[in-house]
Specification:
heterotrimer, A mainly alpha (298), B mainly alpha (340), C alpha/beta (232), A: mainly alpha, 4 strands, B: 340 residues, mainly alpha, ABC transporter involved in vitamin B12 uptake, BtuC, 14 helices, 2 strands
């Protein structure tokens, strides 16, 4: 019984992180059709900011966390302004390739300007301690992560339902031109979308760094890949889909870790992706969307 | 068989490109050091991959990110078949299904490898052909990751990130040049064939094309399988020259590199594929040389590890922003020589 | 209020409208009539800034031809576009809120007003706009446009695809707007209805103005009317 509860906790926290990452991707994609592969590098920006904070002897955890989230947000908005604006209205493929290019440039800039080696970040170790609870040993980090993600989701939902900018973003997902025709500035909508994705990346960064303890130029690759898969599973561009996809991915991963016999232990990733593949065959547009005939009335 | 005007132009264009490829091959063979020969061979293999990419992406107008995976499938399939038993017993001691107990000649191995790749391509293509635009791209990315995971984790068959060695090195630069030349004709031929034309037409407006009786799915599938077959050949050329392969080259970096080559030259034309490949292959070598901190005119330049990545990424970003059609845009090489 | 001169509108490399000129005086209703493909919607697109164009567009004595879409709209231009284009994934109320996005002070009272004028919108206030009927969507599109309390309303094909009874409702609504001295530029294929409301009308064909005049001028020209209603 404890074992099951423990695994559920694992699945929740894995899922929470993937959901957080996936939301960052999904919010940008839903509005501008851009698969932002550079999202991982935004996370790395947060990580390197933490290094900078440590170098400046600013070890107050609030400052470290705040700085990381701040840097990630600024980084994201800057990217939009500098790299993605020229391809804003281009087709999704152009955007995707641009994002790929930006990602490679950033990874190599980290290599070039900082260091090819991982750099330790210890200021967040305090976040993780075991909490004995009803016979389980939960990591506080897992708890924080799950709770934070839930709060983030709620805040985002409120933002999207209650604020004009949030409404504009939801509308823009279907008809961006019409949003402009109601007088709402395109620049503001895009910048906000990237700002949100930056904040999400920063928050995810905090948890990733607390667990890993170090940052390197290629830090962003694995997270963005998982975010991507989660989005695909949930239906690319759908925000609820991103959340569901993230939690589902977490659940599948934990399930594979638990169910696979010892001998196949190293195969977890392959099985996870295999399951995803099967899922995609059944629902190519993602879990939430039944396969649609093209030409159907929108 | 009478050829249409564009098909005749295509023949001219392909022949021009073939001439260039042969010339480069001859110059490299006579004047190049062993090290340089390897680079040139590598660029020809890249060219094969980029041509394969062009056949699908240039005609179906869908970005494919799984091509390195198919190259890997072809490479591994051929490698497993052709490597002598003695070698395999050492490198794949626990291979299942008796894979380490037989060895075939290079030609049969190549044929089997192509057949296997084509079969897998067909299966995946059946799903992919029904999706369009970003959906297909996303699934192709998933395919890349899945195949790579399989390579990494079935180390009993593939040896993962460790080197799979002992492949007989039966190819030389000449072989690569010949294959590349044949591919140029095939790819250009497809572009000017009725399938290529129909596919391009339907890429822009799928529903209208379908309404006119064009079977879009089947055309896409055709281009897809053709593309994957060519990728398998590229993979075979890769393993038959190097003698060792591992899982690492068949993943994101390679995807990105070859994509950059196609985009720089222009994905709509075969000339673009050739141009972009050579520009980046040789340009990158030059940048890599710069990276190592060379001595130029008595000055020691600093080591700038990562410069090649920055340059490559910037090339992509700039092209997408300023000239998405690539250097060649819609023009093929014969447009410079023949009049309209 | 709106003076357009020598307008050429481009869709990519294709020129859809060739050098037309027309005027919409304040407080009047002007119609652009003509068959499918005449260039009426292209003209609207050029005024809002969505389509590329050359020529001069003066709005309230200001040249807006170089301004981006959002800036033009904020100067007091509102549009109910062809096909209504309500935000299908937002509720009726949310659609209206977006329409009044930069008119923050009055939003709530305006919404209440619209719900009173159109009880059906009020009934469906929390319903997704995409689930409304064609006529309800048209009402919503016009209400949304008017949330910004604009100086001119561009109406593109309000009768398109609607049943005659609904069309009458919509045009009654437009008539009421006219009574309130709203400046309106109306694009319509249904010439009869449009002429009933308009002070002035222009007939477009193949991207050029082939006739213009008051409603009476059109009405008394039998040949023209026959052509128009034949096409309508």
């Amino acid at each position: 019984m404890e074992f099951v509860a423990q695994q559920i906790m694992n699945a929740l926290s894995f899922g929470a992180e993937y959901a957080l990452l996936a939301l960052g991707l999904a919010i940008v994609f839903s509005i501008m059709g851009l698969v932002n592969f550079a999202h991982g590098e935004i996370i790395a920006v947060g990580g390197y900011t933490m290094v900078a904070m440590a170098a400046l002897s600013l070890n107050n955890p609030l400052i470290v966390v705040g700085a990381a989230i701040f840097a990630a947000s600024i980084g994201a908005v800057t990217l939009e302004r500098v790299a993605f604006r020229p391809v804003r209205y281009a087709d999704p493929t152009t955007g995707l390739l641009t994002a790929f290019g930006v990602s490679i440039v950033l990874q190599n800039l980290f290599l070039l300007l900082v260091s090819p080696r991982p750099i330790a970040v210890t200021s967040l170790y305090f976040l993780e301690w075991p909490i004995p609870f009803a016979g389980l040993r939960i990591s506080s980090l897992q708890l924080f992560e799950t709770l934070t993600t839930i709060i983030v989701i709620v805040v985002m939902m409120l933002f999207l339902k209650r604020t004009v900018l949030g409404l504009a973003m939801r509308a823009a997902a279907l008809d961006f031109e019409m949003v402009r025709l109601t007088g709402i500035k395109a620049n503001r909508v895009f910048a906000t979308a990237f700002l949100i994705s930056g904040v999400l990346a920063g928050i995810a960064c905090v948890f990733i760094m607390a667990r890993r303890g170090s940052v390197d130029p290629h830090l962003g690759f694995d997270p963005v890949l998982m975010a991507f898969v989660a989005c695909v599973v949930g239906g690319f561009g759908s925000l609820p889909g991103a959340v569901i996809g993230g939690f589902l991915l977490g659940a599948i991963e934990v399930a594979m870790l638990v169910l696979l016999p010892q001998s196949l232990g190293g195969m977890t990733e392959a099985f996870v992706f295999g399951s995803i593949a099967l899922l995609l065959i059944w629902r190519p547009d993602g879990i939430l969307t039944p396969p649609r005939e093209k030409g159907d009335k929108q | 068989m009478t050829l249409s005007r564009s098909q005749k132009r295509g023949l001219v264009g392909a022949s021009l490109l073939a001439f260039v490829l042969i010339m480069v091959g001859i110059i490299a063979s006579y004047f190049g050091s062993k090290y340089q020969l390897r680079i040139v061979y590598g660029s020809y293999v890249s060219l094969m991959v980029v041509l394969a990419l062009q056949v699908f992406m240039g005609n179906a107008r869908i970005t494919n990110l799984s091509h390195s995976a198919f190259m890997g499938i072809g490479a591994y399939a051929a490698a497993i078949c052709v490597t002598p038993v003695a070698m395999k017993k050492i490198s794949l001691p626990s291979a299942p299904w008796g894979l380490n107990a037989f060895a075939l000649d290079p030609v049969t191995s190549a044929v089997i490898a192509i057949a296997i790749t084509a079969a897998i391509a067909l299966l995946i293509g059946l799903i992919l052909a029904r999706l369009s635009g970003i959906g297909a791209t996303i699934v192709s990315l998933a395919v890349l990751v899945i195949v790579h995971s399989l390579f990494l984790y079935r180390t009993d068959i593939f040896k993962g990130n460790q080197a799979f060695f002992g492949i007989p090195q039966v190819f030389t630069l000449t072989s690569a040049v010949i294959i590349a030349v044949i591919m140029v004709y095939v790819v250009r031929g497809f572009k000017e064939s009725r399938w290529g034309i129909a596919l391009r037409a339907s890429a822009d407006d799928e529903i209208s094309a379908a309404a006119m009786g064009v079977n879009v799915h089947r055309l896409r599938l055709l281009a897809w399988v053709l593309s994957c077959v060519l990728l398998a050949v590229a993979g075979i050329a890769y393993s038959y020259y190097l003698g060792t392969i591992s899982a690492r080259p068949f993943y994101f970096n390679h995807v990105f590199l070859t994509l950059a080559m196609l985009i720089l030259g222009g994905m709509r034309t075969v000339t673009g594929a050739v141009l972009g490949t050579f520009l980046i292959s040789f340009g990158l070598e030059w940048v890599r040389w710069l990276e190592t901190g060379p001595h130029i005119l008595g000055l020691k330049f600093p080591e700038v590890l990562g410069l090649s990545g920055v340059v490559l990424g910037s090339v992509i970003v700039l092209i997408m922003a300023l000239r998405p059609g690539g250097i060649m845009g819609d023009r093929e090489i014969e447009d410079f020589i023949l009049k309209e | 209020m709106l003076v357009v001169q020598n307008l050429n509108v481009f869709h990519g490399p294709i020129e859809a409208v060739h050098g037309i000129s027309f005027t919409v005086k304040e407080g009047t209703c002007v119609s652009l009539l003509g068959p499918n493909g005449a260039g009426k919607t292209s003209t609207i697109s050029a005024i809002t800034g969505v389509a590329k164009s050359t020529g001069s567009i003066m709005f309230a004595d200001e040249d807006i031809s170089a301004l981006p879409v959002e800036t033009r709209i904020r100067k007091g231009i509102a549009v109910s576009p062809e096909g209504r284009r309500v935000f299908a994934n937002l509720s009726v109320k949310e659609n209206l809120r977006l329409g009044g996005a930069y008119n923050a002070a009055n939003v709530d009272s305006l919404i209440a007003e619209w719900f009173e004028t159109f009880p059906i919108l009020g009934e469906r206030r929390d319903q997704l706009a995409g689930t409304l009927s064609g006529g309800e969507q048209q009402m919503l599109a016009i209400a949304r446009a008017l949330m910004s309390e604009p100086r001119i309303l561009l109406l593109d094909e309000p009768s398109l695809g609607l049943a005659p009874k609904i069309v009458t409702q919509i045009f009654t609504m437009i008539e009421r707007l006219k009574e309130k001295q709203m400046t309106i530029l109306l694009v319509e294929q249904n010439a009869t209805l449009a002429l009933r409301l308009s002070d002035h009308a222009y007939l477009l064909n193949n991207g050029q103005i082939v006739a213009d005049g008051t409603a009476e001028t059109f009405g008394s020209n039998d040949a023209l009317m026959a052509e128009l209603t034949g096409l309508a």
